[in-house]
Amino acid sequence: MIERLAQHGRRAAYVVPAACWLLSTSLLAASVTMQQSDPSAISGMPGFGDAAWWWSAGVLTLQAVVLWVLRDRPLAALLLVAAGLPALMVLGDAIGVGLLAVLVATYRAALAAPVRRLVPAVLGAGALVTAGVTAAGLRSGSAESAAVVGGLLQGLAAVGLPLVLAALVGARREADAALAGTAEAQSRERDALVQVVVERERTAMARELHDIAAHHLSGIAVMTAAIGRQIDVDPEGAKRAVAQVREQSTAMLRDLRNLVVLLRDTESSDPDGPVRVETLAGVPELVARARNSGLDVALETSGPVEQVAASGAIGPLAQLAAYRVVQEALANAARHAHGARCAVRVDVHEGDHVQVLVRNSAPAPGQALVPHDPGYGLVGMRERAELTGATLRYGPTNDGGWQVTLAIPTAPQTTSAEEPS
């Protein structure tokens, strides 16, 4: 592929000068033919047998050679090609055949060189063209003023038209480059946004896994500790505790299965039943499971909790966040405050917000705090609150316990009323 591109570049290097030479010499020959058929059509035009004609053909050939040899030095090529116009003054009115190479050289220079370096070369080329055309006009018998004006106009056109065309082509190239740069920047931005989304999904998955596993495993740890003491003195109680461990394990597997199903990219129904998304209405069941696992916890509600949960005033993501906050707070109490009494309160404030409060007292006498490494429970609570626009507060209480409070804003409920007629 690279070799083909190189070959294409080499072909373009000599095709343009060759085409320019072929066209200019063809015009030179056609001018002679036209002058022979009508001597008054072109003034001062030499014939095929004149030395001036062969001189002119040689100048046109040198212009093409300069275009090819100095293709990497466009400013020098422009000045040398334009210097051929004074040498072509012997053609009289047919001097225009030498302007083709000037047009090509000016276009190349305008595309390749910066404006600061281009201006002197363009002015020099324009002056040379003006001088050559003016001299040719005087040689063909034109009036001095007409020859000067004609030289100025042709000199301006010879360098002005290619400059305009090169400016348009350069602007198009810059626009294409800008579009390509914009497309590349948009591609990088999309990649960055995808990466952000992936990171958020990873964080959400880690948070869900932590909340599910921490809650159930905390209860299992408490119950298995009790089983170790009961198995000799209270076999029946140990059997009941084993049943509770099994219940907790089954619940954890169910919650993990629900999470996996939610993460699947499929519309097929789950063979084990519909996926359950936790809401505020599931908080009583959550508290009941914690109580069955041995945690001393009480639930208090204020207001129509189930109605608000089903009305859409709180979105499903916010309700899941509230459920997980209660779950994590109870798991923390079971792990770090053995024997403490816990209270869960859900208050529904109509038209304002829903407040979820989980409070545990200090550990029971003789129950020291369990040493533990810093975890991600509070971090997950805070992330859930920020994600749903809720307000989370947590910290120790005056009696040595711990309290977590989550305030979730509710969406305003629209009501319709008939206007009196």
Automatic annotation (TrEMBL):
Organism phylogeny: Bacteria, Bacillati, Actinomycetota, Actinomycetes, Micrococcales
The keyword Endoplasmic reticulum belongs to this UniProt entry's keyword annotation: no
Top-level division of the source organism's lineage: Bacteria
Species this chain originates from: Cellulomonas chengniuliangii
Main enzyme class: transferase
Spans through the membrane: 12-32, 52-70, 77-106, 118-138, 145-169
Keywords from the UniProt entry: ATP-binding, Kinase, Membrane, Nucleotide-binding, Phosphoprotein, Transferase, Transmembrane, Transmembrane helix, Two-component regulatory system
E.C. number(s) listed in UniProt: 2.7.13.3
Histidine kinase/HSP90-like ATPase domain sequence ranges: 321-410
Gene3D superfamilies from the UniProt entry: 1.20.5.1930, Histidine kinase-like ATPase, C-terminal domain
Pfam family, one: HisKA_3
Name of the protein: histidine kinase
